[in-house]
Amino acid sequence: MSEIVDQRHLDAIADADQFPYWLDGAIGPESNPTLVRAEHCDLCVVGGGYTGLWTAIIAKERDPSIDVVLIDAGTVGAAASGRNGGFMDASLTHGISNALSRWPDEVELLEALGMSNLDEIESAIRRYQIDCAYERTGVISVVHTHHPTSYRDDLAEERRLLERLGHEVTWLEGEAMQAEVRSQRHYAGLWDRNGSALVDPARLVWGLKATAERLGVRIYEDSKATGLERDGIGVLVTTSLGKIRSRRVALATNAFKPLLRRTANYIVPVYDYCMVTEPLSDTQLESVGWRNRQGLSDTANQFHYYRLTPDNRILWGGYDAIYHWGGKMSAELESRPESWAKLSQHFFETFPQLEGIAFTHAWGGAIDTSSRFSVFWGKALGGRVAYALGYTGLGVASSRFGGSVMLDLLHGRRSVATKTDFVRSKPIPFPPEPFRFLGIQMTRWSLDREDRTGRRNLWLRILDRLGLGFDS
Fold this sequence. Notes:
alpha/beta, D-Amino Acid Oxidase, Chain A, domain 2, 14 helices, FAD/NAD(P)-binding domain, globular
C-alpha cells in the first residue's frame, strides 16, 4: 500500500477527536472508592480489565462464599479492555497457524478449548444480561490484491486445517468475496462463520464489573499495587494508601509494569492505533455491502482489522505496531498522528467508494506482546500468586480462559487445560536493551519486506528457528 498520504486523506482525520469512540458520550458505571485501609480476603485480583474481572467472576461462580477483592491502578476497563477493536476471537493461540507451529500435538484440543471458551462467554453475556452489542457474525481473513501469492496459499492451507477440525468455514474468491464486502483490494477471503464475535468492548467491561459486584466482589479503583510479599500463610499486597492480606493473589496487569520481576522480560508494551468513521449513509453502506456484518482482518504481517459498529461506522485499525525504547508507556504515546495518517491512506485505498467520509475518533493503546503471540501463565511465592500475561492483541475472549486457568493454578486443580504444554510452557524472553529495541526494529523492517515480496529473509528465518516473534 502507498505510504504517500494524499491531502484529502489528511483532511479526513483533521477533526477527529483523540479519544476512544466506545467511551465518547457513554455513561459508564459509578466510580469505586480508593483503598485507604487494611483489608483481608481469600482472593485478591490485581487489575480491572477483562482478565481480572473474569477471574473474579469465575471464582465467585465456583464458590459463592469466597471473599474476593479486586483493585485497579486507575478506572476499571480504562486501559486496553475498554478501547480495543471489539474482536472476540475463539482462538487462544493467536490463530491456528501459530498453534500448529508451536503446539502441533495439541492443536485440536486447543481449538476445542477456545470454541468452548467463546461459547461460555456468550452464555455468560446472556445469563448476566450484559448489554454489549454482541454479534457472533464470524471473521473473514482477507488476501488483498497486492499481497504476495504465497499469502493466498497459506490461507488455503488454513482453510483445510480449520475444516478438518470442524470449523464452519467458507472460501470466498472474486465475486463471492465482493458479494460480502466490496473493495477493489479484496482478492479472496476465508470466512470462519462461528469462530469469532464482535462486541462493544467498553460496555462489555462495564457489564463484567457490574456482574462481579452483584456476585459480591469488592472493587477499589485508583488503588495501584506497589508491592507483593509473603505474609504468613498468605500474601501481602500493598497499595499507595492501603494494604490487603489475602490467601491468594491473581495478577492481571496486562502491559503495565509487572509486580513480579521475573515476568518483566517476557512481555513488551506495543502501541496499536485505530480510527472510526462517521456513520455511513444508506447509500454508502450499500456501496460496501457488508450485510452479514463480519469482522475483517487481512493476512499480512502488518495487518489491518476492520468492522462495523452498531451505528454503522467503520472501525479501521492496526498495521503499525510501535515499540518505544525501554518499554516506555505514557498517555502521550496513545496519540500518533503519523499512524492515523497512514491508516487513513490505507482506508481510502481499500474503500475508494467512500471518498469524502470523515473520521470522528482516533486513538491508541498498549498491547502486552509476548514472543509466542499468546497468553502464558506462571506461579510465584510458593504457589500463592498466579499470573496471566502476553495476549498480544487477541485477549477479548482468551482473557476469560486466562482467568480460569489462573484459578486452577492457584488451587492446584488439574484440569484439561493445565495439563497442556500450552499452559505449562512459557515464551522465550525478549533480550535486554539495546538489543531489544534494535531487534524489534529489524523485525518490523523484515516483516514489511516480506509483505511486499513474499520472502522471509535470514533474520526472520533465524527467529523462526528460535521460536521468537513480534506482532500486535
